[in-house]
Design a protein that fits this description.
375 residues, Rossmann fold, 2 domains, 8-stranded mixed sheet, 7-stranded parallel sheet, globular
């Protein structure tokens, strides 16, 4: 263990602050320190707090930190602020608002700039989360910029994501549905002492009847205990209970189906299903591989889609198929984002509903979305 990592494990706040700066600047020393500290990570509870501007996210983070300290927990706050147009650094509004915690050694506050990164967090946020976790913090609270419905990157970092809303949003609840609304583990209706809090909950219930919803007045500490209880309840749920897409199969174009099947058999993968689809002029074999599958595709005619793919690109990955819990909703979100769809949802092999997304919208690879079976 290098000296930096040792000091951090000993509770040296200055060493932690210097390491945080190093992580933000992508200093090679930071990578070494993170590697040395890796065995100590995995303890912290990571909570993301996001929502539209003006919802009171900073006040909520402030109240959560105070409540956790009353329980004897240590807390790291990562406040992602907008970047200054002049210096590129963070506009430190969040750290200024949290000055009441300045003298508390059990709370470490770090403001960082987005530096133009979309999604409401900075590129180095994940490294800071790992650093705070390995430093022994019990909770890591990540407050995003609050830019709106595209702010969903936090879901990949936080174990539980809190989406903060306020009364008076009106149709904004509907507008947010296609973005941050779908990553929430817990919804907080903050400033709930204002008129309209019940209407916000009603709108949420109409769209998400099983959502966890908590009313708070963060500036007065009201509802914070209930919020922490809801976070614990959501965190205790199995990860698979959250409706996320999963890989169904990888489609691979091959010139000789039998030769390809024989190759994968040497790896212990046997074809569980074979089929010829006349309409698409293709023969296929499905090979189960763990929780997903490999789909081998051989054209039955040179002018078929797979035949043209082989002629242009040669054998290789043809498409990635994701199974989604609600295909119509996924299609609606894609259309709203401007993605290019190649067909309307239709029935495919095996009776499932599917739609294809053009490679130009999916990072250069053909993407297939499949409706999750209800059985």
């Amino acid at each position: 263990m290098n000296e930096w990592a040792r000091k951090i494990r000993e509770g040296d706040t200055r060493a932690l602050a210097r390491a945080a700066t190093s992580v933000e600047n992508r200093d090679p020393r930071a990578l070494e320190t993170l590697r040395d500290l890796a065995p100590f990570a995995g303890h912290a509870r990571t909570i993301g707090i996001t929502g539209p501007p003006g919802a009171g996210k900073s006040s909520l983070v402030d109240a959560l930190a105070a409540a956790l300290r009353q329980q004897g927990k240590t807390v790291a706050i990562i406040a992602v602020d907008p970047s200054s147009s002049l210096t590129g650094g963070a506009i430190l509004g969040d750290r200024i608002r949290m000055q009441q915690h300045h003298a508390d050694p059990g709370i470490f506050i770090r403001s960082m700039a987005t530096r133009g990164n979309p999604g409401g967090i900075a590129r180095s946020t994940a490294g800071l989360v790992r650093l705070m976790d390995a430093a022994g913090k019990d909770f890591v609270l990540i407050e995003t910029v609050g830019v709106g419905q595209d702010e969903i990157a936090i879901a990949s970092l936080a174990q539980v994501t809190i989406v903060v809303l306020v009364p008076g949003m009106g149709d904004d609840v509907q507008a947010l549905k296609a973005g941050i609304m779908e990553i929430a583990g817990v919804f907080v209706i903050n400033k709930s002492d204002l008129p309209g809090a019940d209407l916000v909950e009603r709108d949420l219930r109409a769209e998400l009847p099983h959502a966890a919803i908590v009313h708070t007045v963060a500036t007065e500490g009201k509802g914070i205990g209930e919020l922490l209880a809801a976070v614990e309840q959501v965190h205790a749920q199995p990860r698979h209970a959250i409706d996320l897409p999963r890989i169904d199969h990888l489609g691979i174009a091959v010139p000789d189906l039998e030769a390809a099947v024989a190759f994968y058999q040497t790896l212990g993968l046997a074809a569980s299903h074979r089929e010829t689809i006349e309409a698409e002029q293709v023969r296929l074999a499905m090979l189960p591989a763990g929780d997903s599958r490999i789909e081998l595709l051989e054209p039955t005619a040179p002018d078929s889609p797979i035949g043209k793919f082989l002629e242009k690109r040669g054998p290789g990955l043809h498409h990635v198929a994701l199974r989604v819990p609600d295909l119509p909703a996924a299609v609606a979100r894609l259309r709203a984002s401007g993605a290019r769809l190649l067909n309307e949802p239709r029935e495919g092999a095996g009776g499932h509903l599917y739609v294809f997304v053009h490679p130009a919208s999916a990072g250069g690879v053909l993407l297939e979305l499949i409706q999750e079976s209800e059985t």
